[in-house]
Specification:
Protein Transport Mog1p, Chain A; 8-stranded antiparallel sheet; 446 residues; RGM_N; globular; 4 domains; membrane
C-alpha cells in the first residue's frame, strides 16, 4: 500500500483496461466487458434496468473510430446508466458499470459534456468472447513487490495499521466495522462493502414462506485491478456452490509480479473458503453452514474508508449498518419471547423451539450470553433450523480470528445501541435543549 498521495496518482492504472485499436476502447468492447459482468452479478430487483443499457448498445454500431466518436459513444452509455440511478441505487452491477465507464472516459480524455448522438443501428451480432484463461495457483510464487504487501508498503515511521472487522450471518445479523450489532430483514440483494479496492454484495432469501427472517443464499465479491499487483477478479458463491477459485477458474490475482497478493484458499471443501488480499491487508472468510452462507472480513481502517469522493456510502451495510426501516428490534423480541416462556403452558414457537429449549441448545456452543448467543436464540425461534446454532458459533470463531481487539470479541445488549441511534439520541438532546432555551427566553420577554 502506498502513501495516500502516491496511491491517488496511481489510480488511473486501475480499472477496466478494455482497449481497442490504437489503445482506444470501442463501445462494443465496453459492452462485452459489461456483458461478462452482468453474467456474474445477481440483479437486485426487476425495477433495476441497468442491463437494458448493455443490451441496447450491443445492438448498435460501435466500430473504433476517431476520439470524438469514442467519447460520444461513452457519453451515451454513461447517460443511459445515469438514468437508472433511482431504481438501481443498491445494485452492485450499477456501481461497477458506472465506475467502469468513468474509468474509460478518463483514459480517453472524454468530458461528460458534449454531443450525445447515438451510434448508427445495425443488425446485432453476438459477441465472440474467448473463454477466460485458467491461471496457475500462485502459492509457489514469491510475495511480490513491496507495494503489493500492505504493511510493507507503509512508511517506516507510520503507526501500525488499525484493523477492523465486519460479519454477516444467520437470519441475518450484522456486526459493522464500528462494532454495532444489528438484526435485519434486508431481503434481496444488498451491498456489504464498496470502496476503491473491492465490492461485496449479498443476496438474502426468506428462510420460510411468509417469514420476515432471511438468510444469505448468494455472495459476490469484486476485487478491482490495482497497479502491478492484481487484475480484476470476481468471486461468486451461492448455496451448495462454494468454489475454491475465482469465477475465471484461477486461484490467484493473475499478475505474476504480484505473487501471493490475492488468492483463494480452501480450508474445508464446500464449507469454508478464505480469500487473502495482502495488497490491501484484507482477509475474507466465507462459509456455508446448513443451506446458507456467512461472511466475515478483517480490513485496515484506511481501506475501509477509501471510498470514492462522489459515492454515497449510506447503503453499504458494513460501514453504516442496515437502514432503520430494515432493522428488527432485538431487545423487544427477546423481552416478548422471555415473557411467553413464563406464560401458561410455556408455548413453543411455530417451529418447535420454546424460549428455554432454544437457550439450552445455543448454550451448548455459546456459553457466554452475549449478542451472538442471543442471535442464536432468535434464529432458532424464528426458523427452527438447528444449523443457525453453528452459524452463530462460527461467526464468533471468525471474530476471534479476525478482530484485532480481544476485549471487543463479546458484545452485550448494553452495547447494542448502534452509532446511528446514538447520533439520533444526541440530536434529540440538542433539539430539546434548544427548545428549552427558546421557551425560557420567551417567558423572560413576555
Amino acid at each position: 500500500m502506498q502513501p495516500q498521495r502516491e496511491r491517488s496518482e496511481a489510480r488511473p492504472r486501475a480499472g477496466w483496461m478494455v482497449m481497442g485499436e490504437r489503445g482506444r476502447p470501442s463501445v462494443l468492447e465496453v459492452c462485452r466487458v459489461l456483458a461478462v459482468l452482468f453474467s456474474l452479478l445477481p440483479s437486485v430487483s426487476l425495477q433495476c434496468k441497468i442491463q437494458k443499457c448493455n443490451t441496447e448498445y450491443l445492438t448498435s454500431s460501435a466500430n473504433s473510430g476517431p476520439e470524438k466518436d469514442t467519447c460520444v459513444a461513452l457519453r451515451v452509455y454513461y447517460g443511459c446508466v445515469a438514468r437508472t440511478t433511482r431504481s438501481c441505487r443498491g445494485d452492485l452491477s450499477y456501481h461497477a458499470t458506472k465506475h467502469g465507464i468513468e474509468d474509460l472516459m478518463k483514459q480517453n480524455n472524454c468530458s461528460r459534456d458534449g454531443p450525445t448522438s447515438p451510434p448508427r443501428a445495425r443488425t446485432p451480432q453476438p459477441p465472440q468472447l474467448p473463454p477466460p484463461p485458467v491461471l496457475p495457483d500462485s502459492q509457489e510464487r514469491s510475495d511480490g513487490p513491496e507495494v503489493c504487501h500492505y504493511e510493507r508498503s507503509l512508511p517506516r515511521d507510520a503507526a501500525p495499521p488499525n484493523y477492523t472487522h465486519c460479519g454477516f450471518f444467520g437470519d441475518p445479523h450484522l456486526r459493522t466495522f464500528g462494532d454495532d450489532f444489528q438484526t435485519c430483514k434486508v431481503e434481496g440483494a444488498w451491498p456489504l462493502i464498496h470502496n476503491k479496492f473491492l465490492s461485496v454484495q449479498v443476496t438474502n432469501s426468506p428462510v420460510l414462506p411468509g417469514s420476515l427472517a432471511t438468510a444469505t443464499s448468494k455472495l459476490t465479491i469484486i476485487f478491482r485491478s490495482f497497479q502491478k499487483c492484481v487484475e480484476q477478479k470476481t468471486y461468486h458463491a451461492e448455496t451448495d456452490e462454494l468454489p475454491a477459485a475465482f469465477a475465471d477458474g484461477s486461484k490467484n490475482g493473475g499478475d505474476p509480479n504480484g505473487g501471493n497478493t490475492l488468492r483463494v484458499v480452501e480450508r474445508v471443501p464446500g464449507q469454508h473458503v478464505e480469500i487473502q488480499a495482502r495488497y490491501i491487508g484484507t482477509t475474507i472468510v466465507v462459509r456455508q453452514v446448513g443451506r446458507y452462507l456467512t461472511f466475515a472480513v478483517r480490513m485496515p481502517e484506511e481501506v475501509v474508508n477509501s471510498v470514492e469522493e462522489d459515492d454515497n456510502q449510506d447503503l453499504y451495510l458494513c460501514l453504516h449498518g442496515c437502514p432503520a426501516n430494515q432493522r428488527i428490534d432485538f431487545r423487544s423480541f427477546r423481552t416478548r419471547a422471555a415473557g411467553e416462556a413464563h406464560g401458561a403452558g410455556r408455548r413453543a414457537a411455530p417451529h418447535g423451539f420454546t424460549y428455554q429449549s432454544a437457550k439450552a441448545k445455543c448454550k451448548e456452543r455459546l456459553p457466554v450470553e452475549d449478542l451472538y448467543f442471543q442471535s442464536c436464540v432468535f434464529d432458532l425461534l424464528s426458523s427452527g433450523d438447528i444449523n443457525f446454532t453453528m452459524a452463530a458459533y462460527y461467526a464468533f470463531e471468525d471474530v476471534k480470528m479476525l478482530h484485532s481487539n480481544s476485549k471487543r470479541y463479546h458484545l452485550f445488549e448494553k452495547n447494542a445501541l448502534s452509532g446511528a441511534a446514538r447520533r439520533g439520541t444526541d440530536l434529540l438532546l440538542v433539539f430539546l435543549l434548544n427548545l428549552l432555551a427558546v421557551l425560557l427566553w420567551t417567558e423572560h420577554h413576555l
